[in-house]
């Protein structure tokens, strides 16, 4: 028998020649018209080669057998548990491996094996979920870039939670279509945390100030994101903000002072448990006692109540509803009027609120000035309540 001669020859042949002969044997097993006896002998020989001390031999075996559905299953399973570069060939290509085999490999093997599995032509949801849960950052990136991946939203959210601070992960996610607003906001929050840590590590700002600056930047981006989000996706975004501890009074006040009533009302409905339709009626009711009841039901801080009350009154009285400047940025005139009205209260009681409103006013003024200058340079007649004098 040819296989018997092959086995005798293996005892003295160098590793490189053994690898070439092993490759030839595996191809013969798959593609030659061998008798049943020769097939059984070839399978036995390949099983024996699994113990060859040279990775060249085992690698040659894996290279030929990996993609074939006719390869001996026992040999494939053994190669899938071999050293990383050999196992990767089988994990990436073998059709004989079940989803359970792949999930187990993700959990028990290293990043090389995880990346190989993430590169498969088709990655089912269960396998993608395993990679999202315990896979390395590199494996998660490969998974997201693979067009054959079937991945559930909760797995994407888990990747964001684990690796959203990494730029390549953020870029591939944001480049895709159909990413929910809640996931986009989570990426914004991760970026904010990363920037804060970067600034503090280089001692450019003290930690408290850095955290405040990036928090306000994150809130600004969140309100802008909510303004561009379809109404049916706003409540999931609000729920995400609440669960992640970001649905603060400061964020809601920013939303209201930007004219984003949809975000404000959805937030009140989620926090208070009152139906949205009723919240909308109560918010537009000019009687202060009705809104105060909703405000307290939402467990928002009493110290911030005057600003919310005055903001709603200003919005109703001065026509800020339907403002053509949109609901993604702070309204300077609105903030200034709220500031004026809040100044009539006990200064000690509302001091932190006044400081927040002043920061909002400064931000709005800078944004307005920037947009004014950009339009001026572009030759567009700005309309921000300021007359442009022609040169």
List the helices and strands and how they pair.
Elements: H1 2-10, H2 15-31, H3 36-49, H4 55-65, H5 73-80, H6 84-93, H7 99-108, H8 111-118, H9 125-134, H10 137-145, H11 153-163, H12 167-175, H13 181-201, H14 207-227, H15 231-243, H16 249-257, H17 261-272, H18 276-283, H19 288-297, H20 305-317, H21 332-342, H22 347-378
Helix pairs in contact: 1-3, 2-3, 2-4, 4-6, 6-8, 7-9, 8-10, 9-11, 10-12, 11-13, 13-14, 13-15, 15-17, 16-17, 17-18, 20-21, 21-22
Write structural notes for this entry.
With 391 residues, this protein is an all-alpha fold. The protein has 4 domains: 1-96; 98-179; 182-243, no CATH class; 248-391, no CATH class. It has 22 helices and no strands. α13 crosses α15 (231-243) and α16 (249-257) runs antiparallel to α17. Residues 386-391 have low confidence and may be disordered.
């Amino acid at each position: 028998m040819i296989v018997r001669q092959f086995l005798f020859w293996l005892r003295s042949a160098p590793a490189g020649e053994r690898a070439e002969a092993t490759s030839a044997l595996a191809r013969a097993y798959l593609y030659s018209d061998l008798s049943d006896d020769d097939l059984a002998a070839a399978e036995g020989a390949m099983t024996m080669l699994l113990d060859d001390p040279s990775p060249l031999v085992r690698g040659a075996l894996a290279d030929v057998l990996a993609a074939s559905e006719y390869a001996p299953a026992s040999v494939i399973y053994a190669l899938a548990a071999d050293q990383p570069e050999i196992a990767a060939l089988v994990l990436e290509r073998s059709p004989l491996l079940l989803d359970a085999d792949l999930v187990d490999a993700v959990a028990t093997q290293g990043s090389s094996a995880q990346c190989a599995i993430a590169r498969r032509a088709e990655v089912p949801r269960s396998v993608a979920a395993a990679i999202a849960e315990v896979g390395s950052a590199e494996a998660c990136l490969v998974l997201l870039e693979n067009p054959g991946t079937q991945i559930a939203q909760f797995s994407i959210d888990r990747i964001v939670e684990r690796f959203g601070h990494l730029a390549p992960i953020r870029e591939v996610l944001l480049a895709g279509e159909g990413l929910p607003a809640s996931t986009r906001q989570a990426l914004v929050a991760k970026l904010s945390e990363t920037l804060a840590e970067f600034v503090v590590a280089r001692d450019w700002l003290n930690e408290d100030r850095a955290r405040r600056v990036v928090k306000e930047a994150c809130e600004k981006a969140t309100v802008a994101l909510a303004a561009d989000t379809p109404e049916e996706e706003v409540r999931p975004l609000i729920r995400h903000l609440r669960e992640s501890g970001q649905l603060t009074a400061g964020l809601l006040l920013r939303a209201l002072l930007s004219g984003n009533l949809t975000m404000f009302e959805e937030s009140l409905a989620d926090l208070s448990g009152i139906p949205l339709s009723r919240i909308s009626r109560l918010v537009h009711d000019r009687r202060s006692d009705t809104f105060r009841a909703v405000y307290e039901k939402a467990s928002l801080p009493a110290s911030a109540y005057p600003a919310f009350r005055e903001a709603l009154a200003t919005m109703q009285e001065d026509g800020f509803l339907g403002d053509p400047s949109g609901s993604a940025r702070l309204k300077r005139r609105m903030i200034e009027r709220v500031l004026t009205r809040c100044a009539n209260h006990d200064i000690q009681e509302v001091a932190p609120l006044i400081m927040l409103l002043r920061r909002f006013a400064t931000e709005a003024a800078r944004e307005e000035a920037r947009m004014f200058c950009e339009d001026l340079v572009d030759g567009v007649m700005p309309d921000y309540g300021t007359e442009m004098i022609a040169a």
